[in-house]
Specification:
Number of strands: 2
Helix content: 40-55%
Order of helices and strands: HEHHHEHHHHH
Radius of gyration: 18 Å
Number of domains: 1
EC number: 2.8.2.-
Strand content: under 5%
Keywords: Carbohydrate metabolism, Glycoprotein, Golgi apparatus, Membrane, Signal-anchor, Transferase, Transmembrane, Transmembrane helix
Membrane topology: Single-pass type II membrane protein
Largest sheet: 2 strands, parallel
Subcellular location: Golgi apparatus membrane
Shape: globular
Main location: Golgi
Strand order of the largest sheet: 1-2
Distance between the termini: 45 Å
Amino acid sequence: YQWRHTKETRLSEFNQTEVETMLGSYTKVLFVRDPFQRLIATFLQGMGSSPSFSSFVQDVLDSVTRNTTSVAWKPLVSLCRPCLVQYDYVVMFGFQRQELGHLLRRAGLPVDNLLPKFTDTQVLWTYRWLSEQMFSELSVQQKKQLSRFYRWDLAAFPFSSSFLSD
């Protein structure tokens, strides 16, 4: 299907047989991150114009109501379709060094030269601390709405320590 396969071609433009053939020929890797941590990262990167995390979350929730949700905080299951695509690997944020090392070894590539020096434990600790601080800024209603909005991500992936799964 090389003649139809360009950067701009969306998977939905192919028929079911073409999709199955293409996906069967690739190693499919899905990188996932706790949805609450994705919201924090988006806020910290300044992608929202809100002065506080609570008002940013309210903007996100309002965009859900208006059906204008940004890809930056859209649920992963709606973006990556893990129920339809059989991913070969699912890599959780916070375990990149371990998981990427495994993937590189499976591909026959030298791990030591290609892997950056990740500090997974420091990243996990920092996001845990940030999550505690920012979660405490939210109203009970905002917490419930976020949990509902991300319910399918929380069901599909093992985000056992997510603040939204409580």
